[in-house]
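# nightly structure sweep
# worker-07 picked up a monomer target from the shared queue
# config: single-sequence mode, recycle default, output format = structure tokens
# input follows
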Amino acid sequence: MKQKLLLLALILMALVSCSKLQSNEKKFLKGMQSENYEESSKAFSEFCEWLENDRETMTYDFAMMREKIGLKTVSSADGLVRCYSWETTGSDTLHIYANITQWMVNDNFAAFSGPIEQLLTGRKTRMKNNHHVAHSIDSILDLSLGQNKVYLIVQSYINKFGMRRAYVSACTLSGIRLALLPYFFDGTEIAGNNEFRDNGSIPIDKLIKWDEKAKRLYTYQTDDDNNLIPGKYTVYELGNERFTRLPVEE
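# output follows
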């Protein structure tokens, strides 16, 4: 009898929590869609603050926001890292995204609002027009290296010239921080290639691929005129500590 009552109490708590999350999502979505600049800015700030402080959002679906404003949520397989991104301005040649990152270390929850580059490096990154350089976070791969867990964050952006770039940053949970792993890709901080002409239509899995069995990461290549070379990749092979870049096949 006690077990049934406990189960019922847990179900009721879950329903109450879900109702609260849905209510907040609906409220912030309405505000962010407002044509009044002050109202939409206030809702944006409060939405970010909510994600920074409520660990229950790490497992919430955000179905309404995904449908209405294109909110993208990607999580690591172990559920310890989650990234949010959505486009705050839209045009064919300039894509500016908002980024929020959440992570868990043991029972400690932390979050950061802003470009993930700023989170990982501690450096502020801005474009010439003073907009933050924020990216669409496309996926998170998590790898085990001995006792350490490494997260590969796949991201992309499109600049004001209609050029796209996609690349991978490697990070790990260190203390209570989500920290960049320097020199992880054969002496460089990121695995990726030059900008190329694309409006975002090419799927990310056609640009960056991870072969779990072979432990190889494939990143696209471009020619001298910034055109994507179909089917040609730079290959990184994972060793005991980091990736090694393999010789380019002619």
